[in-house]
């Protein structure tokens, strides 16, 4: 659990965390562009709406009870006390008498910590949507997002960061979300994609990105915002924030290069989509490990993530699950790599002070990292399956065939992203052809 004290906040730390929170929130619109550019033109608004809607749904749940479940007083290692901070009671206080101070978590106002962690919850839910592009009903998405956040993300955040069993018993290292964010969302994405089923025509029909500049813009916004994600997790404007900023930069650059090399060798051409995907793979992999590795370790993790994730995205064709935008291959696989490789590359001079196998450590750290990764993967996958089947047999998960053919923008939102009427056709006919 987090402990609050009444006092005066550190101005520098508070300013950095407020900035970091805003940077992390920007990642969700960045994700919307990243995903939106990869779908066909008739589905781009629906894809963007899935990310943006997470900002609404998760924020409301977070301030009501989500923060309390994640960071309230521990209940058996599984969740925090749901009522302790219900509606953020006791956290917005002290402003009538500024000399008495305000509730602090560490050196920052408790409300700033609440806001920062809210952004993690939002983007974790939004990440899942990429696996079910082009076919999931928007109403079903909203219900899934609300239930999954409640019964999976909030408790898992407690396990990893809020004093739960992974933090206290397993003692696995996850500085900024390899397990709680990326493995968690990737496993849920796999489960949801399996239950929803394949897109009509997949895998024979090519589903090409309709707007690669959107994809590149989204990747750039994600990279920019990710510095708040990782360096902000230091919760202070200090040397830890500086170190994690640098390892995040280095690993991401290395992963992009690794992905492009795979494309050049395998396909003959490096692509912009590959560069964008490599950027995200590197960001994912360095997220849990950014405080545990030195620059050489960050380079190694980045290259490994770029290469492995570039190969992993093709697993969906081998195993027959339609992960539309490669959430599993990038986020689940990248999260596993970043979490487990701490057991190899953790350097004692890094802020976490851990020793991986390559720096004189033993197998214990590797085992702890693996246990944490597997536990979150299994829990998220199983519960997401249950939620998805429950929705499927009640309100229904998937849009009907006609809606899927016409496009989710028109069928779910009565809108189109592009007005082609000025070009001599109708918007509806142009969308049908996209």
TrEMBL record:
Its main location: membrane. It is found in: Cell membrane; Membrane. Pfam families: Ammonium_transp. NCBIfam families: amt. Keywords: Ammonia transport, Membrane, Transmembrane, Transmembrane helix, Transport. The chain crosses the membrane at residues 15-35, 47-71, 104-128, 140-161, 181-200, 212-229, 241-261, 273-289, 295-315, 327-347, 371-391. The keyword Hydrolase does not apply. Belongs to the ammonia transporter channel (TC 1.A.11.2) family. It comes from Nocardia fusca. It comes from the Bacteria. Residues 15-418 form the Ammonium transporter AmtB-like domain. It is a multi-pass membrane protein. This is Ammonium transporter.
């Amino acid at each position: 659990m987090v402990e609050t004290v009444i006092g005066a906040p550190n101005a520098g730390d508070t300013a950095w965390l407020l900035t970091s929170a805003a940077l992390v929130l920007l990642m969700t619109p960045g994700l919307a562009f990243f995903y939106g550019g990869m779908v066909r033109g008739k589905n781009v608004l629906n894809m963007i709406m899935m990310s943006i809607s997470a900002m609404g749904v998760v924020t409301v749940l977070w301030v009501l009870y989500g923060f309390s479940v994640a960071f309230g007083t521990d209940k058996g290692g599984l969740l925090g006390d749901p009522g302790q901070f219900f509606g953020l009671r006791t956290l917005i206080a002290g402003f009538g008498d500024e000399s008495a101070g305000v509730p602090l978590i560490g050196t920052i106002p408790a409300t700033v910590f609440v806001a920062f962690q809210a952004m993690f919850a939002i983007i974790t839910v939004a990440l899942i949507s990429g696996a079910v592009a082009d076919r999931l009903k928007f109403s079903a998405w909203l219900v899934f997002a609300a239930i999954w956040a409640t019964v999976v993300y909030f408790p898992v955040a407690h396990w990893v960061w809020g004093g739960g069993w992974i933090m206290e018993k397993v003692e696995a290292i996850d500085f900024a979300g390899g397990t709680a964010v990326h493995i968690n969302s990737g496993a849920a994405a796999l489960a949801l994609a399996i239950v929803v089923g394949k897109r009509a025509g997949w895998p024979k029909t090519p589903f090409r990105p309709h707007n690669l500049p959107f994809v590149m813009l989204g990747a750039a916004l994600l990279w920019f915002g990710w510095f708040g994600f990782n360096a902000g997790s230091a919760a202070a404007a200090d040397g830890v924030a500086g170190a994690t900023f640098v390892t995040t930069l280095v690993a991401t650059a290395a992963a992009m290069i690794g992905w492009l090399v795979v494309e050049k060798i395998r396909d003959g051409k490096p692509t912009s989509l590959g560069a964008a995907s490599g950027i995200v793979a590197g960001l994912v992999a360095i997220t849990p490990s950014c405080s545990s590795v030195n620059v050489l370790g960050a380079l190694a993790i980045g290259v490994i993530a770029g290469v492995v994730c570039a190969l992993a995205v093709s697993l969906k064709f081998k195993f027959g699950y339609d992960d539309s935008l490669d959430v599993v291959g990038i986020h689940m696989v990248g999260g596993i790599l970043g979490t487990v490789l701490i057991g190899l590359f953790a350097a004692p001079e890094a802020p976490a002070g851990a020793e991986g196998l390559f720096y004189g450590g033993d197998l214990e750290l590797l085992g702890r990292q693996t246990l944490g990764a597997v536990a979150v993967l299994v829990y998220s996958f199983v519960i997401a399956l249950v939620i998805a089947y429950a929705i499927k047999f009640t309100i229904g998960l998937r849009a009907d065939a006609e809606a899927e053919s016409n496009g989710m923008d028109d069928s779910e939102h009565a809108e189109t992203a592009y007005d082609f009427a000025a070009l001599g056709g109708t918007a509806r006919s142009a969308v049908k052809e996209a």
